[in-house]
Amino acid sequence: MRQLPLSEPAAEVFGQPNPAVLGYLRAGGDPYSTATWYLFDGDQHVLVNTNSARRRVADLRDDGRVSLTALAKDDWYTHVSIVGHVAQMWDDHDLADIDRIARHYTGDRFADRRGPRTSIRIAIDRWHAWGALAPGAND
């Protein structure tokens, strides 16, 4: 695992709207993962957003340790993974955050306008990369 900042090639991949998986611990300590959209702020944080009724909201309030792996669209062997913690959670009342994330992925606002949503800001503690981004891969 490397410390911050992300390398330029890793930040470039992580900044794209790539498929991603969020990992965290459930209340009983069981690991859990779920596919998610994310938005990298280009610095030390990642924004994710979920329906407020999801169990993960309570789980992340109980234990904010997370990992997130983004897979390069054209080469899933190439990926960037972060390990971090929930830095902040808030209600996304006007759906502004999920709309920002949806525009990143689809070019349009989030389609499902029902139900309350929760924004989760993840602070990146460390990271690693694999495939074409692995140390020495392009030497």
Features:
139 residues; alpha+beta; Pnp Oxidase, Chain A; seven-stranded antiparallel beta sheet; 3 helices; 7 strands; 19% helix; 43% strand; globular
Q: TL;DR of this structure?
A:
By secondary structure, the chain is an alpha+beta fold. The protein is 19% helix and 43% strand.
Strand order of the largest sheet: 2-1-5-6-7-4-3
Provide the CATH top-level class.
Mainly Beta
**Spans of at least 5 consecutive residues with low confidence:** none
The CATH superfamily is: Electron Transport, Fmn-binding Protein, Chain A
Distance between the termini: 19 Å
Q: Pairing-aware structural class of the strands and helices?
A: alpha+beta
Q: Major sheet: size, sense and barrel closure?
A: 7 strands, antiparallel
Series of H and E elements: HEEEEHEEHE
Task: Tell me, rounded to a whole number, the average pLDDT.
Answer: 93
Strand content: 35-45%
Percent in helix: 10-25%
User: Could you name the CATH topology?
Assistant: Pnp Oxidase, Chain A
Radius of gyration: 15 Å
Q: How many individual domains?
A: 1
